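Title: Comparing notes on inverse folding

I've been comparing how different people in this forum approach sequence design from structure. To keep things fair, I'm posting one structure and asking everyone to reply with a full sequence. Here's the target:
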């Protein structure tokens, strides 16, 4: 059975049992501060469990792209070393939202594995939660009983809180679970040690394949558990592990999910998989990581220096490093695997094909730049090694290499050990720990529990139509961080405040009680489906009703920028071509920023065409045509553009201005004329194949024009109100050039005269032709003068002192034979004399210069110079 078939049959099995098949949510999470990446199938349904939102259907099934590289679930260091943990993997799942519970979940799981997929029952073990005194929870006797009805008792194993109580993170929905494990060892191995003893013992051939979670609780900030409004089922089966079992192989990497990638890696790197452990680990790391990175980029997360982008960059760098060290790859090669990956996965995940070009380009550029870092790091490491005492490199040095230059520590360790040098690993760890604590202290946020004033499942957003309305507070909580200090997050029963999203900043404003008590809202954000308002203080009477007022001016400017962003998107596709896709957007009240895929710099002519296009739409005065709550398919059929990596619900909102039509949740102007004018202020590169345009509209554009015309007026005034200022400036430039030439030739003539005068002043001192004189000329002229004199004369010792732009400059020239004969050194002379002008300098034995800040010392310098030839 191919992996494609396995995925299909899983979904079909639950579809036959009245489950609705839903698509995978994007792997990159954008609106949950507690989670960067989807780490389990249940993430996208979290709000259903908490009762904050009504589910689309009571039974759902899907295959979810997961990434476990940060936070509570982090498998990164295992990946490649073992054969069954991945960074990115697919989690097959079936869900019940307050519908069926343990009985059906257990029965269907068993039926699917043993009847549909015909897995040998003797190789399966199941676990159940044994209870936990910490949480005051008893053992899950219900699950035990249900299992006992279908599985022999010796195959049912009690499990601890660690393995059998599933939690998404430190807070959130959770509950006891039952796992299904499989033993795929050979008969002999199984005879020697019973599988039962190896369950949950990290044995690579006795692994968990499916976890059935019975969601009943919500873990609160203080660690306590609270009952959820209803009981739910959340199951997760590792797709790649299931493929391993059904395809009769002993490693996930031997399934058809990975073999095409591995063959490709072997071909590109000229290595063989399955011969030597070190090579094998490297091959697995690369085959695994390219998937994670490619899917993250396709989901819209580019590698970067912070947050989720940094995690992606680190995964890719781990792969590059393994290729570099163990497969001897000194040139980019991982990007070449994307083609194979796309061929293999595009049926289930079409984004990997449509975004292929971008993914390839981004990976290639990352590889190039990191390989350069590695090269530089190797050079630096060489210098560190040559300076090292007692064949030992300190932790601090290694940390500097790691922290400042991005050079991986394990590579440092490897190179050092190859050269017979020791590394203070402990010292390194200490430095690393210190750095971690510094950044944790800077970013740590403590979040209190919600204080719920009124149960209210859905907080309605009314801000498309109203900028003020009456609201009541339904819940609030305190948050504090080093960065922002103490603050409150407040949720209303309905709100006119737009929460940050789709690139648009959150609204600001205030709420006011009937007796005039005001609390300012300084930002608004979405957290899952709650609209959270940030306030520095709470109103005195929390339970009262309030007038909620959005800052109209900011909203007006932000809306203009958002509508302009749509027109810009349309213009770019018209002017540059259909390959242009939105890759990021930032809509502020004073400017907008738009990132898009395009493979070369946008020329000034193209930029002009784009700007003109947008301004033409503004002048056409196109009215806003908005459709809310229309089915996704209808909107797409009508021609609306959807974005990759964006999670759309079943119903969407479409925004149309003339021929521009996009799915969008943001706020917009009523008519393009309200944008007033659109000006591009910048164009730059963000990453390989991604360009950025910055622009302004409305008030910012007006301010721009005003300041331009102010500057112009000033220029005219300075030019004495010349009729044609440009002509006047050109004339001035020409005049300036002529004058410069005249000054140059005058200076040359003066230097010539000066040379004559100076030659006359030469004195015979101790066999040297000596001169110390003050010549206040440009340094380069002084130098020429000294060399000029030296050309024709032997045994010359010249010291010139000059005052130039408020500083003192010394120039010393000594004929070579004189310098040798008398062991004179011009460098030493200027250093010595430099002290008198409060400065220093140096050079060669026959020519040196010095500078200092005290021109007052020049007479002394001239006097003292003589001493060197005496
Ligand atoms: P394990 O103990 O093997 O790490 P887990 O307890 O972390 O598994 P769950 O969080 O219960 O796993 O996830 C549900 C299922 O997802 C697991 O039964 C397993 O089949 C699969 N799975 C979990 N982590 C990974 C991973 N890193 N790579 C591939 N599959 C995984
Ligand atoms: Mg795990």
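Reply #1:
Here's my take.
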């Amino acid at each position: 059975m191919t992996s494609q078939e396995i995925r299909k049959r899983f979904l079909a099995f639950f579809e036959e049992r009245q489950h609705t098949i839903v698509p995978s949510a994007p792997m990159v999470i954008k609106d949950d501060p507690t989670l960067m990446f989807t780490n389990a199938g249940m993430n996208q349904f979290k709000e259903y469990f908490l009762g904050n939102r009504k589910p689309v259907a009571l039974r759902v099934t899907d295959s979810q792209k997961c990434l476990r590289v940060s936070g509570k679930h982090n498998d990164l260091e295992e990946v490649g070393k073992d054969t069954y943990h991945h960074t990115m993997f697919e989690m097959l799942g079936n869900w019940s939202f307050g519908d069926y519970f343990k009985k059906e979940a257990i029965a269907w799981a068993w039926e699917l594995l043993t009847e549909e997929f015909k897995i040998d029952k003797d190789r399966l073990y199941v676990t159940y939660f044994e209870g936990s005194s910490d949480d005051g929870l008893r053992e899950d006797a219900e699950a035990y009983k249900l299992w006992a009805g279908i599985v022999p008792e010796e195959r049912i194993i009690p499990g601890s809180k660690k393995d059998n109580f599933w939690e998404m993170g430190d807070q959130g929905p959770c509950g006891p679970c039952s796992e299904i494990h499989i033993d795929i060892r050979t008969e002999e191995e199984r005879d020697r040690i019973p599988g039962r003893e190896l369950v949950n013992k990290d044995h690579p051939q006795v692994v968990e394949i499916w976890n059935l979670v019975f969601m009943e609780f919500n873990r609160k900030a203080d660690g306590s558990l609270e009952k959820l409004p209803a009981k739910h089922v959340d199951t997760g089966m590792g797709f790649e592990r299931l493929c391993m079992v059904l395809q009769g192989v002993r490693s996930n990497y031997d399934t058809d999910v990975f073999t095409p990638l591995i063959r490709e890696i072997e071909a590109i790197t000229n290595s063989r998989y399955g011969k030597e452990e070190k090579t094998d680990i490297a091959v697995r790391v690369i085959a695994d990581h390219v998937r994670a990175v490619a899917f993250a980029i396709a989901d819209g997360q580019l590698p970067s220096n912070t947050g989720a982008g940094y995690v992606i960059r680190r995964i890719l760098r781990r792969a590059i490093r393994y290729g570099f060290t163990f497969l001897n790859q000194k040139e980019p090669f991982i990007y070449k695997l994307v083609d194979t990956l796309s061929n293999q996965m595009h049926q289930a995940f079409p984004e990997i094909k449509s975004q292929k070009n971008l993914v390839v380009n981004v990976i290639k550029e990352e590889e190039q730049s990191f390989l350069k870092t590695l090269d530089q790091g190797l050079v630096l490491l060489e210098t560190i090694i040559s300076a090292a005492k007692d064949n030992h490199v300190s932790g601090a040095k290694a940390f500097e290499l790691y922290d400042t230059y991005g050079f991986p520590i394990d590579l440092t360790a490897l190179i050092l050990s190859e050269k017979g040098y020791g590394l203070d690993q402990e010292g390194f760890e200490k430095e690393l720990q210190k750095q971690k604590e510094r950044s944790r202290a800077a970013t740590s946020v403590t979040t209190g529990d919600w204080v719920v004033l009124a149960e209210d499942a859905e907080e309605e957003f009314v801000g498309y139509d109203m900028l003020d309305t009456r609201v009541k507070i339904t819940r609030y909580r305190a948050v504090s961080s080093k960065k922002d200090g103490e603050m409150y997050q407040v949720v209303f029963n309905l709100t006119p405040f737009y929460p940050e999203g789709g690139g648009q900043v959150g609204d600001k404003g205030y709420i006011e009680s009937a007796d005039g008590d005001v609390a300012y809202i300084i930002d608004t954000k979405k957290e899952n489906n709650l609209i959270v308002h940030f306030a520095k203080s709470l109103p005195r009477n929390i339970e009262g009703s309030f007038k909620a007022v959005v800052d109209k001016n900011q909203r007006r400017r932000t809306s203009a920028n958002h509508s302009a962003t749509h027109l810009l998107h349309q213009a770019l596709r018209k002017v540059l071509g259909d390959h242009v896709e939105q890759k990021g957007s930032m809509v502020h009240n004073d400017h907008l920023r738009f990132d898009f895929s395009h493979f070369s710099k946008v020329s000034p002519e193209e930029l002009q065409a784009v700007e003109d296009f947008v301004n033409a739409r503004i002048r056409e005065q196109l009215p806003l045509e908005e459709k809310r709550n229309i089915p996704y398919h209808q909107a797409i059929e009508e021609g609306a553009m959807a974005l990759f990596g964006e999670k759309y619900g079943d119903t969407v909102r479409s925004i149309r201005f003339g021929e521009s039509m996009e799915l969008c949740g943001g706020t917009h102007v009523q008519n393009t004329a309200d944008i007033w004018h659109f000006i591009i202020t910048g164009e730059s590169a963000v990453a390989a194949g991604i360009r950025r345009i910055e622009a302004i509209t409305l008030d910012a554009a007006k301010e721009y024009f005003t300041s331009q015309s102010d500057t112009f007026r000033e220029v005219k005034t300075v030019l004495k109100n010349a009729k044609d200022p440009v002509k006047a400036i050109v004339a001035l430039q020409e005049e300036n050039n002529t004058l410069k030439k005249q000054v140059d030739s005058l200076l040359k003539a003066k230097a010539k005269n000066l040379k004559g005068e100076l030659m006359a002043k030469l004195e015979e001192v101790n066999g040297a032709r000596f001169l110390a004189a003050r010549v206040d000329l440009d340094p380069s002229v002084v130098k020429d003068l000294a060399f000029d004199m030296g050309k024709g004369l032997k045994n010359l010792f010249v010291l010139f002192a000059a005052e130039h732009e408020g500083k003192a400059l010394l120039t010393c020239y000594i004929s070579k034979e004189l310098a040798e004969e008398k062991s004179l050194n011009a460098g030493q002379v200027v250093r010595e004399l430099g002290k008198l002008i409060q400065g220093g300098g140096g050079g060669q034995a026959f020519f040196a210069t010095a500078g200092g800040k005290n021109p007052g010392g020049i007479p002394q310098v001239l006097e003292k110079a003589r001493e060197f030839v005496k």
